[in-house]
Design goal:
heterodimer, A: about 300 residues, mainly alpha, Formate dehydrogenase/DMSO reductase fold, two-stranded antiparallel ribbon, about 70% helix, B: about 220 residues, Alpha-Beta Plaits, 8 helices, 10 strands
């Protein structure tokens, strides 16, 4: 085939399936692409960073650790916020997203992030940072931000893999778990060893809760509908198989489990904690990636 | 105020793709972008299988998932029931696109704009004129608008959408077998309502709960 013809065929029928085949559109279960493919990858990163930043802020409130507050606030707003803006087609109009909090989850999220930015800044600069009222307000805001990304996906009824009941609990636990790992690492390098060691009890709790949420999500979605089943099968096959196996199974679950068992009872050290943090980071990114990538729409025509 | 809707008799449809092409011409759609599609599937198993032919377009739902999801109010339901997009308000978040269970929206970006009907040979005069006559804004979402420009112009001239060609959507005008009927869903005496009643018109995938304004007779 000459280069010219090859180019023509590639243009008309790109390998991603977006070519001139209008008669096949939505005839079979069709994967959502906008929020993960191409520019959509920004949204995946934006959700991740907003949530782990808010997670770090949340757990820092309990340990009254100001450096954690500052880092969490910065991750949420600078990394999470900036990457969100990069995703938009018209970033200069982003302010318009505050207009419809009544019906749009995205709009509600912008309000929450705005309030978090102002209140968080006030908490960080104030002399009595860990005032109980401040803590409660910021704690609630953090939980809302942690769940915001998946809540935005959860309200999309057309995608059973996202509207699954376990999506929100998984999101909250993952935000807290990764945030807690960041905090534990910050403590192990800056505070006496016994503090990080004492944190291990909660690390174990969060880790097992996280694994349980992943299992319940997969089980619940698989049994929710034919399309939900399709999504879970997609996670274990094809291009996602490797990411599910290595990313979710290996880095998100198996390696942290081994490291948690090694440090069982508080026998911690900086290297193990760093290794678990890196593994949990990559694993959680993989969890979010496969969930976002495997969401499929119900076909419009019934094939029997 | 009328509420515009459409009935498609799939038994009449011969899958000629006239609606698809007429729509592309009307809106000067670039390659790969379709506001109107004719889906072809099958049901049953050989030897008793049969073919399904369904022309699909934006359903202009009265309880539209895209309208709910839009954070800026750029996507809205007009008084006449048409789901429209105000491209001056669209931020390109694509929440509407992801929310639509019928997947009848397209994100218009540079990649889509740059596509040529004859790849590698530059844009034709027709494509260049189209970009001037019917410009889409980059970084926004586009979709079928029931040819609202034709409806509005027609109404100004005293014409009746659905009856007079100059006031009806291009896909309705082009259909050689009259499979598409356009009209006012709020008028109990309209042809569209008569067809829905007599031939038991159904909304596609009613279980999505979005109350489409497009009905199918099968």
């Amino acid at each position: 085939m000459s280069n010219k013809i090859h180019h023509l065929v590639q243009t008309m029928f790109p390998p991603d399936g977006s070519g001139l085949k209008p008669y096949e559109w939505m005839v079979n279960p069709t994967r959502q692409q906008q929020w993960i493919d191409n520019q959509g990858i920004f949204l995946w990163l934006a959700f991740f960073f907003s949530e782990i930043g808010a997670g770090l802020y949340f757990v820092s409130l309990f340990y009254e650790f100001k450096a954690g507050l500052i880092l969490g606030w910065l991750i949420t707003l600078i990394l999470g916020g900036a990457i969100h803006i990069l995703y938009l087609g018209n970033p200069l109009r982003a302010w318009r997203m505050i207009m419809k909090p009544k019906t749009s989850e995205l709009s509600r999220g912008i309000w929450i992030i705005g309030v978090f930015a102002v209140m968080g800044f006030l908490q960080i600069i104030s002399g009595s940072s860990f005032n109980v009222v401040f803590n409660i307000i910021m704690g609630i805001l953090c939980l809302l931000i942690i769940s915001h990304g998946f809540a935005t996906m959860n309200v999309i009824r057309a995608l059973p893999a996202w509207s699954s009941t376990m999506v929100l609990p998984l999101s909250v636990i993952s935000g807290v778990w990764v945030g807690y790992q960041l905090l534990q690492f910050m403590f192990v390098v800056s505070k006496p060893a016994e503090i990080a060691s004492g944190m291990e009890v909660w690390a174990e709790v969060f880790f097992f809760a996280y694994v349980l949420c992943i299992i319940l999500y997969a089980w619940g979605t698989y049994h929710s509908s034919e399309i939900g089943k399709e999504s879970i099968i997609m996670q274990g096959t094809g291009e996602l198989k490797r990411i599910s196996l290595i990313g979710v199974g290996g880095l998100g679950v198996a390696l942290p489990l081994i490291l948690t068992l090694i440090m069982w009872g508080g026998d911690t050290n900086a290297f193990w904690i760093f290794l678990r943090l890196a593994s949990v980071f990559a694993g959680d990114l993989a969890v979010r990636y496969v969930i976002m990538k495997s969401a499929v729409y119900k076909p419009l025509l019934t094939r029997q | 105020m009328p509420r515009w809707g459409m009935v498609i008799d799939v038994k009449r449809c011969i899958a000629c793709w006239g609606c698809t092409i007429a729509c592309k011409e009307e809106h000067f759609l670039p390659p790969g972008v379709f506001f109107n599609r004719v889906l072809i599937g099958e049901t049953g198993k050989f030897p008793s299988s049969s073919k399904l032919i369904y022309p699909i377009l934006c359903n202009h739902c009265s309880d539209a998932a895209c309208v709910e999801a839009c954070p800026t109010g750029a996507t809205y339901v007009r008084e006449d029931g048409i789901v429209a997009i105000d491209d001056t308000k669209c931020v390109g978040c694509r929440a509407c696109l992801v929310s639509c269970p019928y997947q009848q929206r397209t994100y218009y970006d540079q990649k889509v704009k740059d596509k040529e009907y004859f790849p590698g040979q530059g844009k034709t005069e027709m494509e260049l004129i189209g970009e001037k006559l019917y410009p889409f804004k980059l970084g926004t979402v586009i979709k079928c608008n029931f040819c609202s420009e034709r409806i509005e112009d027609g109404l100004k001239k005293g014409l009746t959408p659905g009856k007079d060609e100059d006031a009806s959507p291009a896909c309705v005008n082009i259909c050689p077998v009259n499979a598409r009927v356009f009209g006012d869903l709020d008028d109990p005496n309209s042809e569209i309502n008569r067809m829905i009643m007599e031939k038991k018109g159904k909304q596609l995938r009613k279980e999505f709960g979005t109350e489409p304004a497009v009905y199918y007779i099968d």
